[in-house]
UniProtKB/TrEMBL annotation:
Residues 1-20 form the signal peptide. Keywords: Signal. SUPFAM superfamilies: alpha/beta-Hydrolases. This is Esterase. InterPro entries: AB_hydrolase_fold (IPR029058), Esterase-like (IPR000801), Mycobacterial_A85_antigen (IPR050583).
Length: 588
């Protein structure tokens, strides 16, 4: 093995060298922190004066010269290169060397980059110090209104991209200077409109947990005639989703005739942007039609330092988001926007993360809602955590053959081809942040479902480097957040409250193999005693995120969440509303 020797190691500059054979291929970059750099303070505001900075320094190199490298990093085969390291107390005016010590994706090390022309850019995703209510001190990237996107987060520092050539004449690049001259600006608040309104409250429960003010928000789509009918009281549909402060699928004006058509790689459709505008305008026309039921659609914003969404449950690492939503935010929404405010008149729907949340809210708070429409949910049974059995497998990245380990996929395309492996997607997250701070999918599952680890951050469900699964943490997941296990464990108590309320939809070729967990859920619900009277349906050959429409492909049906379950919801209301319930004031 190459022998590593550290010849310079301070809080600001880390340079690793290898033996001579490896050094010939090494690349290194010097990232300069500006003299006037200011850290983040509580609430995401920048400090008034320069001071040492904490955060994740990300060096980005792209051989696609068409856009900034910071806009080209993702977990798909098209992703460009990212190399990350954590800074603790980096002084303004200092420099940081990024070399093979940085965690990389898709190449593990800078020295593995193939020769060629690249655009170079650096981003410093700033952390704040959180003094938690239980006494822990954590360094995390707060959400600053952008939904936990490090490349767009206000206050983050970045450099202007510039070109370089790597491997020209067989020589590596050494000590390339990159300067963080730019600051991502604040986000301009969105004004309310006739149909889209917003509400923001401080949560006492979450404020106590995080040791600082924490806010919850809701974006509400109000029905036609809302302001003209103050006496009306409306059913409420909670649309569980990722961070979203608007309704892009709702458009009050006809499609833009000058819009240049794009191409959707996901759906293999030309002009998908035009399709989206067309469907959004159709939704508006349906929404205001005289015979369409009047109800409220609510999207909640619960972005946090680990992800763009809280998963709507109480968690050791994220805090009591479930209780805060149910007892603080939704009562305020219902009061301000004239909801009926009773369980028979509340429903849930959503897909993917929102699908899991819809099911979890219905299961954890069974009396609060009258039905959940659960599309392509994140794993509802951890025997099928995507394609990992957390209870029986020893490793998340490989299965063992007779003579070798077999690498496991994490994502597949619509033809079943692997687009990234389990090891690859976690390599991507490891480059973005250590201690579960990537802001990405596996790290938020870990943050929501795990106990607090020995270091104060979420306990690891598996080792990011080796894939080795921790059975003790897996047992905690099983006992607290495995939804199928909870149903089986508590069915005699839950069945009367969930009878006929669960509607689950998933494609048989789900991109993330989420259909496997639904198969296990169906095995239980089909044989449950007393019966569940649940609905489970599969979209043949459908990828992520099939939502139960057998007539339209995902490209269209994903734009129809607010209308596609309405007939079933109205039927459920008629069947279950208590005597004397308000079934008329909202049918104007």
């Amino acid at each position: 093995m190459p022998k590593l020797c550290v010849f310079r190691n301070t809080a600001l500059t880390i340079t690793l060298c290898c033996n001579a054979a490896v050094m010939l291929q090494a690349q290194s970059f010097r990232v300069h922190i500006p003299k006037d750099a200011r850290p983040l303070q509580s609430g995401g505001e920048r400090a008034a004066e320069p001071a040492p900075l904490d955060g994740r320094l990300l060096l980005l190199l792209s051989n696609d010269l068409g856009d900034e490298p910071r806009m080209q990093i993702n977990d798909t085969p098209a992703s460009q290169n990212i190399f990350g390291l954590t800074l603790n107390g980096a002084r303004p005016g200092s420099e940081v060397t990024v070399d093979d010590s940085a965690a990389g994706y898709p190449h593990l090390h800078l020295s593995e980059l193939p020769p060629g022309k690249y655009m170079v850019q650096a981003v410093l995703n700033l952390y704040e110090t959180f003094h938690m209510g239980d006494g822990r001190t954590l360094k995390l990237a707060p959400d600053r209104g952008e939904g936990q996107h490090w490349n767009l987060a206000p206050g983050n520092l970045y450099s202007k991209p510039f070109p370089i050539s790597i491997g020209a004449n067989g020589k590596p690049v050494r000590d390339v200077d990159v300067t963080l001259t730019e600051v991502i600006p604040p986000i301009t608040p969105i004004a309310d409109s006739e149909f889209i309104r917003r509400l923001r409250i401080q949560s006492p429960l979450l404020t106590k947990f995080w040791g600082r003010p924490v806010y919850l928000s809701a974006t509400v789509l109000v029905p036609a005639g809302f302001d003209q009918h103050p006496e009306a009281r409306f059913p409420l549909m909670l649309f569980e989703d990722h961070f979203n402060d608007g309704f892009a699928e709702f458009r009050t004006t006809p499609p833009d005739p000058t819009l240049k058509p794009d191409y959707s790689e996901r759906f293999h459709l030309a002009g998908y942007n035009r399709i989206q505008q067309q469907e959004a305008y159709k939704f508006y026309q349906t929404w205001i039609a005289k015979d369409f039921p009047r109800f409220l659609v609510v999207k909640i914003q619960t972005a946090n330092p680990f992800y763009d969404d809280s998963y709507a449950v109480d968690s050791a690492n994220l805090g009591p988001y479930g209780e805060a939503i149910e007892t603080e935010l939704l009562p305020m929404v219902e009061k301000q926007f004239h909801a009926i405010g009773q369980g028979w008149a509340r429903f849930l729907y959503g897909g993917s993360t929102g699908g899991w949340e819809a099911m979890a809210a219905q299961v954890f708070y069974p009396d609060h809602y009258n039905g959940a429409f659960i599309a392509c949910p994140d794993p509802v049974d951890f025997h099928a955590y995507t394609n990992i059995d957390l209870y029986r497998d020893a490793n998340a990245y490989f299965t063992s053959g007779a003579n070798k380990q077999i690498e496991q996929p994490s994502m597949r395309d619509y033809l079943g081809h692997t687009t990234i492996t389990q090891r690859g997607v976690n390599q991507y997250e490891a480059a973005l942040g250590d201690h579960g701070r990537s802001g990405e999918q596996y790290d938020i599952w870990q943050a929501v479902f795990s106990p607090i680890g020995p270091d104060g951050y979420p306990a690891r469900i598996f080792d990011k480097q080796t894939g080795a699964i921790d059975p003790i943490v897996a047992k905690y997941w099983h006992d607290h957040y495995d939804l199928n296990a909870k149903l089986q464990r508590e069915w005699p108590q839950l069945q009367p409250k969930l009878d006929g309320k669960l509607h689950v939809y998933v494609g048989s070729e789900d991109t993330y193999m989420l259909n496997d967990a639904v198969y296990l859920l169906q095995d239980f619900l089909d044989t449950a005693n007393p019966p569940a009277h649940a609905e489970i349906a599969y979209g043949p050959r459908a990828e992520h995120c099939w939502n139960g429409d057998p007539k339209l492909p995902n490209a269209y049906s994903r734009l129809h969440y607010e209308t596609m379950y309405v007939s079933k919801i109205m039927q459920r209301i008629q069947q279950t509303a208590p005597k004397g319930a308000d079934l008329t004031s909202w049918r104007y």
